[in-house]
Amino acid sequence: MTAPIHTDPTVVKVALDARSYDIVIGHGVLASLGARIAALRPGAKTFIVTDENVARHFLPGAAAALARAGLESSHIIVPPGEGSKSYRFFEQVCEAMIAARLERGDLAIALGGGVIGDLAGFVASVVRRGLDYVQVPTTLLAQVDSSVGGKTAIDSSHGKNLIGAFHQPILVLADTAVLDVLPKREFRAGYAEVAKYGLFGDAAFFSWLETNWREIFAGGNSSGSFAREHAIAVCCRAKAAIVARDERETGERALLNLGHTFGHALEAACGFSDRLLHGEAIAAGMALAFEFSARRQGLVPKAEAARVIRHLAEVGLPTGFKDIPGPLPSVDQLMQLIAQDKKVKRGMLTFILVRGIGAAFIEAGVDPREVRVFLSEKLAER
Ligand SMILES: NC(=O)c1ccc[n+]([C@@H]2O[C@H](COP(=O)([O-])OP(=O)(O)OC[C@H]3O[C@@H](n4cnc5c(N)ncnc54)[C@H](O)[C@@H]3O)[C@@H](O)[C@H]2O)c1
Ligand SMILES: [Zn+2]
Predict the structure, then answer these.
(1) Is 71 in contact with 44 (CB distance < 8 Å)?
(2) Does 295 qualify as catalytic in the annotation?
(3) Of the residues 85, 264, 311, 378, which is catalytic?
(4) Ligand 2 mean position to 142 CA, how many Å?
(5) DSSP letters of 179-220?
(6) Mean pLDDT by 10 residues, the chain (382 residues)
(7) Is 286 buried (19+), middle (13-18) or exposed (0-12) by CB count in 10 A?
């Protein structure tokens, strides 16, 4: 597997019949936002949803790109952070879009990370019974995961992402250069999702990551930006293929949740705070999923789990309870969080387990007692 050595962006197609769209990935592609939108929706009015951090860096450039293509734009800036995926900001953004006189045929633009993509996408799914929208993901997590596939949502007081819709964008524009100003910790957390693509379904990609991860982090104008572009394209291609086969997650799409059952429990245990970012929780969750597969089910050689842990740790990601600062919940509390996250069917839990690197599968018959014993052992090691 070699990284591209060209300067044209990489285009990945999401094949969903009439709702098909392109993911355009490349260094500096944000400058082509207007031209690409004008080609898809000539004369459309546009409305940008973004957050304060992203606006500071990229709103002027995005608005200028739209103006150069003769497109009118207005915007709303919400506070950064998960708190904006709320009823309050959902209402504000809906009202602002209507006040900006967006009609059917006009376009919303989500300029930001997964929070903005989920919020703006959900607003677009309901305003005037559905407006088209474009995703301009600005975090690594959003570029490889949340901007692709059409899942949109805000949070309920009962849990994250409980109010939402499937609403596919008409274009995803992933500029690899915007990641140069993303805080390192956010970049690293997003990298956990990149590694996930290798771990659940692409062993060759995982090997490539083991060799090339530093280049992906380096980015910039160096050869690193090609490694970064290549990695993002591999992830998007994998997600696009899965979404094309299973848009509404009735089966295979669940493989993208590798590490997420343990991960979500850890995230919830840390109160969805800065103590543990989503990607950090997923790194620990994937390490636990490999160890659980190795130790409780005997599915995967221990050396394979050790290899996963070695790579995640090398990058600086947490790989277990020992890497999570502060107090942790008891086994009972963890089991409760796991049961809340996952539907329990006939007393059994559904987990994404592995037979090896790149060989994940959906296992609907995991005995909660087995999980409890495993977690007790892991907590005792801390
Ligand atoms: N829809 C899906 O399929 C899906 C999948 C995974 C995650 N998600 C959702 O994504 C959200 C997390 O997304 P995220 O990790 O991108 O978080 P985020 O959107 O909160 O972004 C993280 C931080 O980085 C800042 N930021 C964004 N881009 C920047 C840039 N280029 N330079 C500097 N700062 C920048 C943001 O302001 C924020 O403070 C969660 O709400 C999660 O539920 C959705
Ligand atoms: Zn995730």
Answers:
(1) yes
(2) no
(3) 264
(4) 10
(5) GGGS-HHHHHHHHHHHHHHHHHH-HHHHHHHHHHHHHHHH-T
(6) 64 95 96 97 97 98 98 98 97 98 96 98 98 98 97 93 97 97 98 98 98 90 78 98 93 94 94 93 98 85 94 98 91 92 80 96 93 94 83
(7) buried
Q: Is residue 278 flagged as an active site residue? A: yes
Q: Distances in Å between the alpha carbon of 220 and those of 31, 147, 214, 325, 363?
A: 16, 22, 12, 32, 41
SS3 category, 286? helix
| Side chain identity at residue 13, one-letter code | K
Structure token digits, residue 45: 């009015």
Distance CA 95, CA 301 (A): 55
Q: 3-class SS at 322?
A: helix
Tell me what pLDDT residue 220 has: 63
Residue of 6, 129, 158, 346 marked active site:
129
Asked if 3 contacts 227 with a C-beta cutoff of 8 angstroms, the reply is yes
Contact 263, 285 (CB under 8 A): yes
232 touches 174 (CB < 8 A): yes
Ligand at shortest distance from the CA of 80: 1
Amino acid at 322: K
Distance, CA of 153 to CA of 79 (rounded, Å): 17
Lookup: tokens for 59: 């709103």
* Gap between the Cα atoms of 382 and 374, Å rounded: 13
Residue holding tokens 């919830």?
268
The number of the ligand nearest the C-alpha atom of 114 reads 1
Q: How far apart are CA 323 and CA 319, in angstroms?
A: 7
In the annotation, is 296 catalytic? no
Does 57 qualify as catalytic in the annotation?
A: no
Q: Is the alpha carbon torsion for 260, 264, 270, 276 positive or negative?
A: positive
The catalytically annotated residue of 27, 239, 311, 378 is 239
Distance 82 CA to ligand 1 centre (A): 8
142 CA: nearest ligand 1 atom: 16
- In ligand 1, the atom with minimum distance to the C-alpha of 57 is 32
239 is catalytic: yes
List Cβ neighbours of 129 (8 Å cut-off, separation of 6 or more): none
Query: How far is residue 75 CA from its own chain's centroid?
Result: 24
4 contacts 41 by C-beta, under 8 angstroms: no
Q: Residue 4 has what pLDDT?
A: 47
